[in-house]
Amino acid sequence: MSERIVVVGAVLLDDGRLLAARRSAPVELAGRWELPGGKVEPGETADAALVRELREELGVDAEAGGRVPGEWPLKPPYVLQVWTARLRPGSAAPEPLEDHDELRWLGPGEIWDVDWLAQDVPAVRETLAHLGHPAARGGEASGA
Q1: Domain 5-130 class?
Q2: Domains of the chain by residue range
Q3: Where is the Nudix hydrolase domain (predicted)?
C-alpha cells in the first residue's frame, strides 16, 4: 500500500577515520552532517546506487562492501540502509560536489563532535558497533 524508498549511506573508513559530509541542501538540512549516499533509483540495486551516489556527490571511484544489518527510518516513505565502501586504488580524493559543502575525516575521538542529522545518529552508532569501531558508544547527545 505505501511506497518504501531506500536511501543508501556509505561508511567510508580510512585508517580508522570515518568520512562525514555536511549538507548544503535542502535548506532544512543545511549545516548538519551525514553519511554520504542517496536514493536507490527504480531498477537499480542498492550497491550500484551507492557507487553512483559516491561518484556524483564526492567525485570518487568506490566499491561497495557489505550491507550493515538493519535499516533506519527517515522521513516517510524513506528508509536508510548503510553499506561499507572503499575507495578504489587510484580514485581521486573525495570532494563535496553535490548537496554538500564540506567533508571531514573523523577519527575515533571526533566522530561525535559534528552535528549529525538526527536520523543518522542511530545508524552511525549501530554501524560502528557492528564494525567493532572504538567510537561506537558515543552519539547520545549528538543532534538527537
Answers
A1: alpha beta
A2: 5-130
A3: 3-128
